Amino acid sequence: MKKTQLVENYSIEGIAQSIVKNHPVSQKYTDDDKKRMYNECQEKLETLPVLEALISLDHFHSYNNTFAPYLKRPAIIPPEIVVVDSRIQEMCALPYWSYYGSTGEGRFGACMGIGSFSCCPPFSLKADKVQAKLDKADLFLVLQTQPREFGVGEAGDQAKTINRLAKEITEVLGKGSVVQKFGGGPCVACSPQPCECGGECRAPENKIPSLEGLGVCVDQLCKDCALLTGDNTWPITWIKGFGSPNQPSMQIKVTIALAIKLVAQHMRGH
Description:
There is one protein chain. It is built from 10 helices and 8 strands. Strands 1-4-8-6 form a 4-stranded antiparallel beta sheet, sandwiched between helices. Strands 2-3 form a two-stranded antiparallel ribbon. The protein has a two-stranded antiparallel sheet with strand order 5-7. By secondary structure, it is of the alpha+beta class. Strand 2 and strand 3 form a beta hairpin. It has helices spanning 12-21, 24-28, 31-46, 49-54, 57-60, 86-91, 127-136, 157-173, 218-229, 263-267; strands spanning 71-77, 96-100, 105-109, 139-145, 148-149, 178-182, 251-252, 255-260. The longest helix has 17 residues, at 157-173.
């Protein structure tokens, strides 16, 4: 009997993909299953022209802020295939070098949001609670920006974009139709005011935890979007030397998402 050779790979992508391969979603759904479910999602979307209009690039680009115009790729995928795992949340605590200052000072440790920012672990929802929300959803909207320089734009404009879209979707589909908002990076919805930290929140209705902070494997999410849409610009490349003069690349893509439930809309008889 031929033995399976295991390859050790401690890159961020390697760790993420090891979690994915060990996750029930990967064991349950083949690529063909995902494509079939994706087509079913598109059929649902075709019956909702008001929702289609809201998730168009033309609509996003009409938002008057510094984040929305960079949105490049929207995709509606089945929430069943989204990998949510507590081990992804634990990866936020992996130590890494971060650099700051003109002379290259730095620190080696976990993301500074851990244990501090109120939407970051351990204050964010646990993975099983996030999975329960996805179980209630019918559609999973994923949005990704085109590459742009790190730090460009107003810090709070990502949150303004997500919250505005969530409000618009709720207005047309009904209360409770947006079951969870997912951001790219730590929540800065209160910017320019700093986070209350320690689990406290001055505006709970506006808070937007990160995809990773809620246990979503963004690496696999973007790979699935590429598989389902045929657009191979979705996958992400992990930055090396973050914050250092040798950082490749100096540009970033931001991925955000909304989990959407259609039951409220159907009950209203639209």
